[in-house]
Amino acid sequence: MTTTDDPKRKSRFPLHLGTGKTTPCRWARSLYVNSKRSLGILTDLLTTSKPATLGWRDYLTVQFTPVRYQPLLFPGGEVIEHRRDESILDSRDKLLAIGLPDNLTGKTVLDIGCAEGFFVIQAVLRGAERAIGCDIMEPRLRIARAVAKAWRMQDRVLFSRTDLHNIPLEWASDVVFCFAVVHHLHSSSGEPRFHDTWQMISNPRKYAKYVNNMLRAVAAVSSLTKEVTYWEYSFEYEDHKPRDVNHGALGRLWVQNGLYQAVDFVGLSQTLPMKDRALYRAFK
Ligand SMILES: C[S@@+](CC[C@H](N)C(=O)[O-])C[C@H]1O[C@@H](n2cnc3c(N)ncnc32)[C@H](O)[C@@H]1O
């Protein structure tokens, strides 16, 4: 059901163009995407060699998964690169930008929406006592488990297919990562998606239901955090990008709503003209 306040009705942002109907244009696009993916798999098979500590079966699982969000790093220095669209911030750059301490000895870590486990594995390499990664996409988790096995760190990691809203409280951790997940969740109660966080913040009354959805998801993450959450939040602009966007205002809203004691806005990566990726450190 749409209402007059529903910003999606006027949206010109390409991510929202999908109507669910198969049109010649959609069909051609899907043909293009699938051929590009098949070509990607073939090219990778011909040009990437198998990392020494990764079994053949796991290597083939990795290579035949059409989309990989994160690069996969292996103990011998081998890298299997990500395979996805270029608008995304590379995990290695994100790790540098977010300012994660080199030493996480004794800390517990939880990565919500962990994809192929890049940050979980990095946390264990920095000494974390245990690290849990959860995601709703099993193929990504299968890859994460294979990479952890290649590092022989299976006894310190757990990868579980679990939704952000159903994470057991026993998984609450000192350090939590939640990178590029929450903006996907606005439609969890069935409403049309609305990604334009800046419009929400600038006009919270008008967009109250979207603001509440966002705060509910952030509250779920905050309740699982003992010390600090490292956040990546994607700002996607519906119609145009205003000149006065203040990304720090999102963190202030979380503090005003009692979700965190303090939130540092760490920085921004502009991956597309109509998309900003903002990084935050949020303290309990
Ligand atoms: C844009 S990717 C980001 C992956 C990773 N956090 C990173 O930044 O490298 C979003 C990830 O969140 C996962 N995801 C989406 N909705 C989720 C939910 N409700 N609960 C847990 N994970 C979810 C997706 O499957 C996907 O792997």
Rg over CA atoms, rounded to whole Å, is: 20 Å
What is the CATH class?
A: Alpha Beta
Multimer state:
single chain
User: Helicity, in percent?
Assistant: 25-40%
Q: What is the fold named in CATH at topology level?
A: Rossmann fold
Give the name of the CATH architecture.
3-Layer(aba) Sandwich
Main sheet, how many strands, which sense, barrel? 7 strands, mixed
**CATH homologous superfamily name?**
Vaccinia Virus protein VP39
The counted number of beta strands is 9
Low-confidence stretches: 1-20
Secondary-structure element pattern, one letter each: HHEEHEHEHEEHHEHEE
* Average pLDDT over all residues: 85
Structural shape: globular
Strand order of the largest sheet: 5-4-3-6-7-9-8
Q: How many alpha or pi helices?
A: 8
**Derived structural class:** alpha/beta
Distance between the termini: 38 Å
Which kinds of small molecule does this entry bind, naming each only once?
A: S-adenosylmethionine
Q: Tell me the count of domains.
A: 1
Strand content: 15-25%
What is this entry, summarized?
Helices cover 32% and strands 21% of the residues.
Give an overview in words:
The chain has a single domain (83-283), classed as Rossmann fold, CATH 3.40.50.150. The protein has helices at residues 24-47, 56-63, 91-98, 118-125, 138-150, 197-202, 208-223, 248-256, and strands spanning 72-73, 79-80, 108-112, 130-135, 157-161, 173-179, 225-236, 262-272, 275-283. The protein is 32% helix and 21% strand. The chain has a 7-stranded mixed β-sheet with strand order 5-4-3-6-7-9-8, sandwiched between helices. The chain has a two-stranded antiparallel ribbon with strand order 1-2. α2 packs antiparallel against α5 (138-150). It is globular and about 55 Å long. It has 284 residues and is α/β, with parallel strands linked by helices. Mean pLDDT is 85; it is low at 1-20. Bound molecules: S-adenosylmethionine (SAM).
